[in-house]
Write a structure and sequence with these properties.
This protein is mostly helical. It has one domain. The chain is built from 8 helices and 2 strands. The termini are far apart. The structure holds zinc ion. The site of zinc ion has 6 residues, from helix 2 and helix 8.
């Protein structure tokens, strides 16, 4: 239609009309391209938001679910420190105030267990494997997401390293550790005998830093990064939680 009209105008040598037709064609193409661009950008923004909402959901659940594991693991690492302090003080007056209890025994016999979750929220795996991480327009937020993914890899490697040749103390020292058949917390440790056995103390001091690295790095570190990401997602999505401290 437009082409026929242009041809007629050329035949009639009506150059003003030809120029006008040309402008109409160019404008038409420009507007169509702009509309397609706006549409594409809108779809991308909606996709980004959908990903972030899903990620927020996953991270919130993980932070809540992993909190008891974090608290317990950090507490166990602390108990190991206290046992080490008792061993150092053994034979002195200070030892009495550092006398270990059941929780300490439980920490000692679990000092080779590094079984907590090292998990990446599924949405992060999807964002990275599909390259859609680039749809996250906030660069700071994108960095936090990638950082968590990298950290999960590093924590997996760290756990692998500290698990190599770890010692099951209860197996090596059955005379001074009696495991409970019912509950680990009801196991019995002969702490004075442990303190007097340099072999036991050496093995204990081999396990202890591994467990502390696991508690501070793998468990606490993961939870900190999840919490940081959760906070950043709250800001990005303008979410406020009534039960969260300001
Ligand atoms: Zn939130």
């Amino acid at each position: 239609m437009l082409l026929r009209r242009i041809t007629e105008h050329v035949k009639a040598q009506n150059w003003f009309a030809v120029a006008l037709d040309f402008v109409i064609v160019v404008l038409g193409v420009f507007v169509a391209t702009q509309v397609a661009n706006w549409n594409g950008a809108r779809i991308e923004r909606e996709l980004e938001r959908a990903y972030l909402v899903r990620l927020h959901e996953e991270v919130s659940i993980m932070v809540t679910e992993q909190e008891s594991e974090r608290v317990e693991t950090v507490a166990r690492a602390q108990r190991l420190d206290e046992v080490a302090a008792y061993f150092e003080a053994f034979g002195t007056q200070d030892a009495a105030s550092l006398e270990p209890v059941g929780e300490h025994c439980s920490a000692v016999i679990s000092s080779h267990i590094f079984a907590g979750d090292i998990t990446l929220p599924p949405t992060i795996s999807e964002l990275i494997s599909t390259g859609r991480i680039l749809t996250v327009s906030n660069q700071e937020l994108r960095m936090r997401i990638v950082r968590l993914a990298q950290a999960i890899d590093e924590y997996g490697q760290l756990r692998h390293d500290i698990q190599v040749d770890r010692l099951v103390l209860s197996r090596k020292y059955p005379d001074i550790i009696r495991l409970s058949p019912v509950d680990r917390d009801q196991s019995v440790c002969d702490f004075p005998a442990m303190a007097q056995s340099q072999a036991f103390r050496n093995d204990f001091l081999d396990n202890m830093p591994r467990f502390k690295a696991y508690a501070a790095g793998v468990i606490q570190g993961q939870q900190d990064l999840r919490q940081d990401l959760h906070d950043a997602l709250d800001v990005e999505l303008e979410i406020t939680h009534v039960d969260k401290a300001p």
